[in-house]
Amino acid sequence: MPITSFHPPHRTLMGPGPSDVHPRILEALGRPTIGHLDPLFVGMMDECKALLKYAFQTENALTLPVSAPGSAGMEACFVNLLERGDKAIVCVNGVFGTRMIENVVRCGAEAIRVDTDWGKPVDVAAVEAALKANPDAKVLAFVHAETSTGAVSDAEKLCQLAQQYDCLSIVDTVTSLGGVPLYVDKWGVDAVYSGTQKCLSCTPGISPVSFSDKAIAVIKSRKQPVQSWFLDMNLILGYWGEGGKRAYHHTAPINALYGLHESLVMLQEEGLEHAWARHRTMHNALAAGLNALGIEFVVDAEYRLPQLNSVWIPEGVDDAKVRAQLLEEFSLEIGAGLGDFAGKVWRIGLMGFSARAENVRLLISALAKAMQDQGYQCDVEAALAAAEALL
Amino acid sequence: MPITSFHPPHRTLMGPGPSDVHPRILEALGRPTIGHLDPLFVGMMDECKALLKYAFQTENALTLPVSAPGSAGMEACFVNLLERGDKAIVCVNGVFGTRMIENVVRCGAEAIRVDTDWGKPVDVAAVEAALKANPDAKVLAFVHAETSTGAVSDAEKLCQLAQQYDCLSIVDTVTSLGGVPLYVDKWGVDAVYSGTQKCLSCTPGISPVSFSDKAIAVIKSRKQPVQSWFLDMNLILGYWGEGGKRAYHHTAPINALYGLHESLVMLQEEGLEHAWARHRTMHNALAAGLNALGIEFVVDAEYRLPQLNSVWIPEGVDDAKVRAQLLEEFSLEIGAGLGDFAGKVWRIGLMGFSARAENVRLLISALAKAMQDQGYQCDVEAALAAAEALL
Questions:
Q1: Contact list, B228 vs chain A (CB under 8 Å)
Q2: In this structure, is residue B146 part of a structural domain?
Q3: Which of A380, B334, B364, B369 has CB atoms 3.0–4.6 Å from B289's, for a disulfide?
Q4: Which residues of A touch B10 (CB under 8 A)?
Q5: Per-residue DSSP letter, A77
């Protein structure tokens, strides 16, 4: 039987990403494709860069979208800044810290690992001790917003430490960009990467990155070539860089960039501070509702990401059954636990366009229903009222 | 002034890619985003793999779309098959062969370069001599359809030689897939990559790849880890592989894959042989028209890619002015020369949805007009008639 066109259903996406994509962005994806060297496309690229600078709160000239998902953005930061034999201190408080270690090792560099318990922010004192003990470290890398746990770390303090100990900072902001305060310049971040499918409400596939002048100087004075041709910033600069000359490097993902552009225009329309406040408001309402259902958060309130809510699965409730029921009965997706948290934790996303009142209401009532079907006792009405009071 | 939504014009894309994107594919890009681990999405992934196997004419289990443009597909082949200290024979008859060399070197491997003049197919005898002289070579790499020149090489013969001399073959089919005959299994190709924005009529951003069992065995028995985490096939297999277990690796570019799926469904509907014949027919008509205008091809008819027509810019005609006029007056894009061909050659694409009669007619009349405006003498009516006779 021949394969026919794929028509996906409408889902409500409240997992760890992709988040709900705004209809304006879906519409933008289908606009007519033009050439990647077309003057009009080049103009759009300049606008994308300007909008990304706003989103990252930076004046970094090297601020652009890498033509691949966040994992490639991570790799872009590591392969450009590290050479064989270098040393990097990597903070691990969840899955994405361990992925950073993988990247360091594959660069032929040495990774000094600083562990913090999952669900906690990166331990600043332990990082300082590692910096003291490794004066030859070139890079300090950490995850701002751990998508596997929902904890936010003190990026400002960690970047200060990096500067103090003469290290370049690499910061994962995949889940933080657009959802919680992030100030690349004010905090002195040297290399930062993010994703489009979280708080920017865009489809996955693109990774915004930004490099400080200090980072650029390091990239330009490398002894060995960057091991990835595709991600070599020296070459990508020729296409995305200042000065108007757009040397062909690779063919940009035209329509995906239409989507990113539209999502960044929307972020600019709403305003960063308002976007951060909206995520906070929706989180507060969701948390009140979940607490009223008797559900507990993994992360202490102080370090909790509003956009990524990790909660303990109540005893006696079957993880997979609940998620399957949510998907089938409510067309609602929530996330499973990753790594050590598999089977123990749900991850409920309130990212970008998903961070709105109707999603909070749906999640509380649908989750309560799915748990009740397994004999779990809870008062849905009270939970909805608790949320509603804060919306 | 705030930046507003970007609304691209409608262009006719007859450069070296992106080609015109079929409206069905543009529509598919804007379908609702669902999760990358959603059972329905996983079903679509399986269909994509089946359709790619058809397009590549292979039964290779490891056949999948890499979540990044063709350049990343190229890199995926090299970083997975090569280790530091390995040796690769690389055929260079245009820009993309030199890019392969860059990839080899960045893997810490040695590149043995076999040059052929630009515009000619890879010199088979020279390749055999290089294979004889380098019995320790692990890889033979070449470009099937050189996008910078428009020449097609004898991939079947070259892959045979690779087998005879116990090398793995890496073949660039970015511009050939869907446009000219390509038989991965019959020819014994070991690693192949392509792009979506050429004869598949899809938007850029994804790179279909396929690896033979022999290549997989080499990847699985590597001594050193693959230097790219993002492109490590050992890990990607966990998400895209057989057996139903879809381990999270990176977030797939959901909507871009909707587009690829739709384009592959359309290729299946048309049938590979019909698609190849259509490209040939349109090329013959275009060539007759261009010849009647007094324009000469760079590549001999025998080795000419129907989908990528490199022609010499007539003396006294200004390259940049003509391309600018075509874009402004006719919203028609053709390609400039790359590398050694810059300023001397135009590259006229007839790829995928661009390979249709109305495009052939438009190109002939618009190009004639732009050249005539610079004093070039030609008979447009005769050229159109010459093309029409073959349509």
A1: 75, 106, 227-228
A2: yes
A3: B364
A4: 32
A5: H
Single out the residue in B268, B286, B303 at which a domain terminates: B268
Of all residues in chain B, the one with the smallest CA distance to A338 is: B248
Q: Is residue B179 part of a domain?
A: yes
User: What residues of chain A lie within 8 A of the CB of B253, using their CB?
Assistant: 69, 203-205, 256
Number of domains in chain A: 2
Q: What six digits make up the tokens of B322?
A: 């003509």
Interatomic CA distance for residues B101 and B192, integer angstroms? 16
Q: Looking at beta carbons, which residues of chain A come within 8 Å of B103?
A: 229
Clarify whether residues A49 and A185 are in a common domain.
yes
Tell me which chain B residues have a C-beta less than 8 angstroms from the C-beta of A9: 32, 34, 40
Give the tokens for residue A207.
């990774």
Domain termination site, one of A234, A268, A302: A268
Interface probe for A, chosen from B251, B254, B319, B351 (most Cβ of A below 10 Å), is: B251
The 8-class DSSP code of residue A311 comes to: E
Clarify whether residues B236 and B358 are in a common domain.
no
Q: Are residues A76 and A213 in the same domain?
A: yes
User: Does residue A202 share a domain with residue A113?
Assistant: yes
Q: How many residues in chain A?
A: 391
On whether B24 is known to bind a ligand per the annotation, the reply is no
Contact A361/A384 with Cβ under 8 angstroms? yes
Cβ(B37)–Cβ(A49) below 8 Å? no
Q: Do B32 and A47 touch (CB under 8 A)?
A: no
Spell out the per-residue pLDDT of chain A, length 391, in tens. Answer: 799 999 999 999 999 999 999 999 999 999 999 999 999 999 999 999 999 999 999 999 999 999 999 999 999 999 999 999 999 999 999 999 999 999 999 999 999 999 999 999 999 999 999 999 999 999 999 999 999 999 999 999 999 999 999 999 999 999 999 999 999 999 999 999 999 999 999 999 999 999 999 999 999 999 999 999 999 999 998 888 776 567 788 999 999 999 999 999 999 999 999 999 999 999 999 999 999 999 999 999 999 999 999 999 999 999 999 999 999 999 999 999 998 899 999 999 999 999 999 999 999 999 999 999 999 999 999 999 999 999 9
Q: Nearest-CA distance from B164 to chain A in Å? A: 30
For residues B255 and B384, state if they share a domain: no
**At a CB cut-off of 8 Å and minimum separation 6, what does B112 contact?**
B87, B88, B89, B90, B130, B134, B137
Residues A235, A333, single domain; the answer is no
| Residue B383 vs residues B350, B351, B365, B388: alpha-carbon distances, Å | 17, 21, 8, 9
Contact B285, B387 (CB under 8 A): yes
Q: Is residue A14 domain-resident?
A: no
Q: Is residue B2 part of a domain?
A: no
CATH number at residue A250: 3.40.640.10
A229/B227 Cβ within 8 A = no
Judged by DSSP in three states, B141 sits in strand
Residues A306 and A341 in one domain: yes
Please tell me the distance in Å from B149's CA to the nearest CA on chain A: 16
CA distance B219 to B234: 7
- Same domain flag for A255 and A370: no
Domain span holding position B235: 22-268
Which among A13, A17, A253 is the nearest to B69, CB-wise? A253
